[in-house]
Amino acid sequence: MATGGLIDREIGFFHALRDAGISISLAEVIDATRALGAIDLLDREALRAAYAATTLKRPAHRRTFDTLFDLWFPPLVGDPSARDGQADAEGEPGEGEGADGDGKPDTDALRDALRELLLDGDEDAMRRFARETVRDLGRADTQPGRQSWFSYRVLRGLSPETLTASLLDRLLAGQQRGGMAEKVARQTISERIKQFQEMVESEVRRRLAEDRGPEQLSKTAVQPLAEQVDFLRASRNDMAELRRQVFPLARRLATRLTAKRRLGRTGKLDFRRTVRASLGTGGVPLVTHHRPHKPHKPELTVICDVSGSVAGFAHFTLMLAYALSEQFTKVRAFAFIDTVDEVSRFFTPGGDVADALARMSAEANLVWFDGHSDYGHSLEEFAANYPDAVGPRTSLLILGDARNNYRATAVPVLRSLVGRARHAYWLNPEPSAYWGSGDSATTAYADVIEMVEVRNAVQLEDFVQRLLPT
After folding, report:
1. Contacts of 361 (CB under 8 A, 6+ apart)
2. In contact, 93 and 137? CB cutoff 8 Å
3. Do both 401 and 340 map to the same domain?
């Protein structure tokens, strides 16, 4: 690839990374371009490593980076098997090992070949096999005169998961079942099958990028980053990834807070020291002296709706609040569905937060009547049973979508709580366009408390930086 073509590819690649949500500054682009002079440009993995080292900041972004890199800098172009004489001039499969007498793919033979490859674990051989099976099984005519490629056609035809039993028999080779050997064998088989599936998906993306161009495919080839996924639409895997990001996120926020404190303003004017120093300049206070700045550490009270789809958002925010507990004098947490209970007892210093969330769901008294969200009754119970939870040093957070099932809102109670708190915010995981629709009571509550749209981890991080003391 000529140098000019490489630079064009680099520019398109960085645009794709930014569109995917990975921030890349101009300085990092310059560093990445300079790194090209320090590597062998014919070494594709060295190029990948150079770009990753100069642009990536978070390990969680590596999967998205690798997917886009493979689109913009593919390992090969065209059909390598055709060049090796394994296909005819039209690129169709020949009557070889993977084809029957009619030239059609013999899926039984392909499955047998895959079984042997999974047993051997040869990555290069599996990658070549993935290319051949995508060529043979993955192509489909979607429109007259136009073809496309699909990984599900390959994986459905080969069904690698159904080979587990026979692979297990071969790997164990008469060893006793149920022990550590079987556990290791199952894990090995699972990892190799997953690896093959990823190879098939990568080959399909490569062929699609050749047909349509990497610019178009980059928009659909990668899923949103975990921190960009809406809490209300997050899958179980998305929420698991978000929970893994809680403590790295808390460390970043705490580091930024420390930097802000170091650069913060000085304290109040020390009048006595200033006057004393002015005696040397004829009573003119050319230099002022200030008392040491003492950052305020507030108390934090969190009240969260843990019903239905908002439970994931509430759990993630609770985990973040306790990960940042050192930045507050005191953290108290309350959860509710149609009644409220303090759940601070489940979160002990040094304890596992995931276990605490599981215990909270099982043991906390959160249901009073029918188990449907009742913000009004929950606010009334909170004010009556926990009068000391909100005071002049308290930052009050209420988490929920404010969908109240058309029940009483208890707005006067909320107004009283907000009046007693130092700061009060309502974090709503619903898009603001939906506020006030249906059974949403956001209109009534927004007149009393500042309501903030927090649909994903990026918005939550921005809000927490605003909440933390400076």
Report:
1. 306
2. no
3. yes
Over residues 101-125, the mean pLDDT reads 82
DSSP 281: G
Q: CA dihedral defined by 110, 116, 120, 121, rounded to 10 degrees?
A: 30
Q: Provide the domain count of the chain.
A: 3
pLDDT tens figures, 395-453: 898 989 999 999 999 999 999 999 999 889 999 999 999 998 999 999 999 999 999 99
Provide the 8-state DSSP code for 126: H
pTM, to two decimals: 0.62
Structural domain harbouring 60: 3-72
Which carries the bigger pLDDT value, residue 179 or residue 127? Answer: 127
Tell whether 179 and 89 lie within a shared domain.
yes
Judge whether residue 368 has pLDDT over 90. Answer: no
Output the pLDDT for position 334.
Answer: 93
Please give the helix or strand (H or E) that residue 399 lies within, else none.
Answer: strand 394-399
- Same-domain status, 148 and 174: yes
176 alpha-carbon distance from chain centroid: 41
The answer to the question of residue 333 being in a domain is: yes
Distance CA 267, CA 289 (A): 9
pLDDT digits (tens, 9 = 90+) for 454-468: 888 888 878 877 766
Q: Distance between CA 59 and CA 66 in Å, rounded?
A: 11
Separation CA 469–CA 419 (nearest Å): 20
Domain check: are 125 and 176 in the same one?
yes
Type of residue numbered 302: V
CATH number for 432:
3.40.50.410
Q: What is the pLDDT of residue 413?
A: 95
Give the separation between CA 439 and CA 407, rounded to whole angstroms.
9
Q: Which of 72, 93, 112 is the last residue of a domain?
A: 72
CA atoms within 13 A on the CB side of 423: 17
Nearest in space to 135 (alpha carbons), one of 209, 200, 220:
200
pLDDT at 90 over 70: no
Average pLDDT over residues 227-239: 73
Do 62 and 181 have their domain in common? no
Q: Which residues pair with 105 in a beta bridge?
A: 99
Do residues 45 and 85 share a domain?
Answer: no
- Which phi and psi angles does 366 have, rounded to 5°? -115, -10
DSSP tally for the chain: helices H, then strands E:
20, 8
Same domain, 85 and 212: yes
> Are 254 and 346 found together in one domain?
yes
The whole-chain average pLDDT of the chain stands at: 81
Domain boundary among 52, 72, 92: 72
Q: Which of 208, 201, 427, 200 is nearest to 303 (CA)?
A: 427
d(CA 321, CA 372) in angstroms, rounded, equals 25
